[in-house]
Amino acid sequence: MISTFKRPSLTGLLLIKAIQQTHTSRIYSKPPKDKIGPMQSVFALCVFAVTLLAPAGWIMHHVPEYRQRTPPHP
Known about the structure:
mainly alpha, 3 helices, 0% strand, transit peptide, mitochondrion inner membrane, Si:dkey-85n7.8
């Protein structure tokens, strides 16, 4: 297997180092006004889990029906 990864040249490495040294983040943030409690965090995680897993569960539940269908005619 031939690797397509190419090592950067010396000038490329120097350029990357120069950019990294001169780059400063311009993101400023304040502390939150209200702290989020553990119940709100658990609720948010449950909502994300249901949002991601419900469609996959629906598909997995209906796989036998999908297999019994005749393929569409072109």
